[in-house]
Structure formats: C-alpha cells, structure tokens
Specification:
The protein is α/β, with parallel strands linked by helices. It has a single domain (8-232), classed as Vaccinia Virus protein VP39 (Rossmann fold, 3-Layer(aba) Sandwich). It has 8 helices and 8 strands; from the N terminus they run H-H-E-H-E-H-E-H-E-H-E-H-H-E-E-E. It has helices spanning 8-16, 29-43, 62-69, 81-94, 105-111, 131-141, 157-170, 187-196, and strands spanning 52-56, 73-78, 98-102, 116-122, 142-153, 199-210, 215-219, 225-232. The protein has an 8-stranded mixed sheet with strand order 3-2-1-4-5-8-6-7. A hairpin with a 4-residue loop joins strand 6 and strand 7 (215-219). The longest helix is centred in the N-terminal third of the chain and has 15 residues, at 29-43. The protein is globular and about 45 Å long. The two termini are 21 Å apart. It catalyses: a 3-(all-trans-polyprenyl)benzene-1,2-diol + S-adenosyl-L-methionine = a 2-methoxy-6-(all-trans-polyprenyl)phenol + S-adenosyl-L-homocysteine + H(+); a 3-demethylubiquinol + S-adenosyl-L-methionine = a ubiquinol + S-adenosyl-L-homocysteine + H(+).
Length: 234
C-alpha cells in the first residue's frame, strides 16, 4: 500500500466547500439528503451502539456524527484540513464525540490493522488516484468478521447524464467539476477489488433521486449512485 494516494486538487475542491459543509441548503445539500439513507443502509446490517468505527474520507463529519449519535465509537479521517476543522467545531457544538485526524487511509491501516468493527468509505473512491489502495486499506483496518461499507458512482452513461451533467450543470445541485466521470467505478469492479483483499459482498443498493419529491431514495437501480456492504472473511 502507498501512503501518498492523494489528489491535492480534489482535496482543494472540498477545502473550498468547508464553510458551507453543515448548511443543509448549501452546496453540500445532496450529502445531507443522502446521509439518512447511508445510515439506514448501515443500521439495517448491524447494531451501532459500542461499535468501534472509522469513517474514511469523512470530510466535514456528516456521517461521522450520525454514527456517533447512533452509539458508535467513531474516528473520522480525511486529508482535507479545513473540512476537518469544521467537523471538529461542529462536533463540539453538537456535543458529539468524534476523534478526527488528518491522515491517509493507507497510513492508518499500517498503524491500526484489524482494529475496527466497522469501516465506512462514502463518496471518496472516485476522488483518489488509486481507489484500490483505499479498498485494501479499508480491508486491512477492519477486524475479521467486521463490516465495510462503500458508496460511489457507477461508470455508466446514466451516471454521467444525471450526476455530472444534470446535477452539476442543469440543476446546479453540486459545484461544476465536482466529479470526473472517468474515475467512476462499476459495481463489478468494486466487488472484484473487495474480493481481492478478502472482503465478501453482502448487499448492494442503489440511490436514486426522485425529482418530483426532491429527495433521494434507496433503490435497486445501481446505474448512478450505489452503496456496497462487504464483510471481511474470518
């Protein structure tokens, strides 16, 4: 595993969003909208109270705080300094305990292999040069029998139409340039990489946007956004 799997231009993008990270009507609105779905997908698989969890690519801490509020013992890691500062401040204001640190997933995996019951890596794989290194790190950090959850975007024409052209340029739900279609990952590719590093696929679900209701929903359609639950083989 490399410990320098960082695209600094991508980090800068999310640094620029730091001030509005916790504004549910701001540029991070889609993250706030899908966060309850991510949490539900996780809670459908395991009970969170007392679980030792790490949120890889935690950004401003939206999922990290939700996991902590649900009873997990949470560490959040990211390479964006400003989002981590926002995450720390918001946790203090909310009275939620999350241990945040600026460190790569690969370095964390070297430092604390096999120490976490739960590893989450949401909307991050498509923003790094080597997503397989992140998958390997997640597989290394989780305990045998522990759970790993990924979410990312499918490299499918429908994903370009809806998540890039539609969300960034038409509806302006996200800043232009947020996503690079070439970095999107097909579910088959993610599942194969998980198997390579000892993770077994448990469940997969799509996330679709319902424009009339103006909300996101869990769905069987994985052509755009999707969530994947894997378990480390004992």
């Amino acid at each position: 595993m490399t410990t320098d799997n960082v695209d600094h231009a991508e980090v800068a993008k999310f640094d620029a969003l730091a001030d509005s990270w916790w504004d549910p009507e701001g540029q991070s609105k889609p993250l706030h909208q899908i966060n309850p779905l991510r949490l539900k997908f996780i809670q459908d698989a395991l009970s969170l109270p007392g679980v030792n969890a790490i949120d890889v690519g935690c950004g401003g801490g939206i999922l990290s705080e939700s996991l902590a509020q649900a009873g997990a013992i949470v560490k959040g890691i990211d390479m964006g300094k400003l989002p981590l500062e926002i995450a720390h401040l918001h946790a203090l204001e909310s009275g939620v305990t999350v241990d945040y640190e600026q460190i790569t997933a690969e370095a964390m995996a070297i430092r604390q292999p096999g120490e976490f019951d739960l590893v989450t890596c949401m909307e991050m794989l498509e923003h790094v040069p080597d997503p397989k290194a992140i998958i390997e790190a997640c597989a290394t950090m989780v305990k045998p029998g522990g759970d790993v959850f990924f979410s990312t975007l499918n490299r499918h024409p429908k994903a370009w139409l809806l998540a890039v052209f539609g969300a960034e340029y038409v509806m302006q739900m996200l800043p232009k340039g947020t996503h690079d279609y070439a970095r999107f990952i097909k579910p088959s590719e993610l599942a194969a990489a998980c198997r390579e590093y000892g993770l077994s696929l448990v469940r997969m679900s799509g996330i679709r946007y319902a424009p009339l209701q103006q909300r996101f929903e869990l769905d069987n359609d994985v052509d755009v956004n999707y969530l994947m639950h894997c378990r480390r083989l004992a």
